[in-house]
Amino acid sequence: MFMPFTYSSEMQLSRQFCSYCTCHGYIRRRINSLNTYLMIYFILFSIMIYYHSLTSSKTTQFDIQSSSSSSSSSSNRIMYVIRTSSKFYTTRLKYLLQTWILLVNEHVYFITDKILPNISYNHFILTEKICGHEKHAMNTLCCKTAHDFIFFHRYLTKYDWFCHFDDDQYVNINNLEKYLSTLNFNRPYYIGRNSWSKPLNRLKQPYPYPFWFATLGAGVCLSKYLVHLLEPYTRNISKFINGCLKENYHDDIYLGFLISAYLNVTLTKNIRFHSHLEKDFYKDKQKFFKIFTEQITFGFFYPYNYPNFLPNFYQSHLDRSHIRTLHCLLYPYIFECQIKIRQYLLNMTK
């Protein structure tokens, strides 16, 4: 039955409207304050759904001895060589051992000064006696990089790609594999991120021409054929070191010079490789969340250059540079990551 509109009902409606206006302003402020949380929630939820549709495999823990990690061996036969130091084991390397290295640990080798825990003896080369005490000097860096090629030449028949990384880098191995699978390792490929926006303008003989070089701090990959071509220049440690000192180039510049001047191979630039020197990479939060799943390497430099805006899946002393959190965002199907993400979402909604 139709009820006539009375004065009392008009007053009641007016009060309801005023109450609505007050509540509406409050709700709007609350929504604005939750925008960041909703964005993170949406990203986490989307990634979880996506990866769950791809695989149901689980890794039960972050442990370098995990047998399940060896099942993720590289179909592209990639060798990963990491330059590190015993003094950086607890502040840098241990976070890599808990994350991406787990997925390819049988293919990872280390150039280091002293014996490191949780690493097989046949997976590292000690450099202290030959390269001296750890310091960021030209001869020391060239000496340690020269040891990369000991591993490269030793396993030339086992691998198709040979990649160098530092101990402050996270490697998205899935993206690296996909990228390298598009290239022919039987051709000479020198892949990395150019250090400078312009080539190095060399005037010195016998090669007075500019050349590009890739920063080792962002990661560098060489094809099997290029490693073979480099053998005359990298067959022993002293030859590589003497070449650095003669040209007055640090290790990454000298490597680029060898490849460009003596082998006539140009750097294949890839901007998805990142070093800790990129000060602006972690400044734009929205841009980072938009592109981070597409990147290949991430460089971390605590406490200055690292994604401090990422959600805290772990206590700060367990994930100082947010490497473990980044790993969980990229691999949310890992069992431990599922637990951490659920805990975070639960705490966020309280």
From TrEMBL:
Main localisation: membrane
Pfam families on file: Fringe (PF02434)
UniProt GO molecular function: glycosyltransferase activity
Keywords: Glycosyltransferase, Membrane, Signal-anchor, Transferase, Transmembrane, Transmembrane helix
Residues that span the membrane, as ranges: 34-51
Domain of life: Eukaryota
Keyword Transmembrane belongs to the record: yes
Membrane topology: Single-pass membrane protein; Single-pass type II membrane protein
Assigned protein family: Belongs to the glycosyltransferase 31 family.
The name this protein goes by in its record: Fringe-like glycosyltransferase domain-containing protein
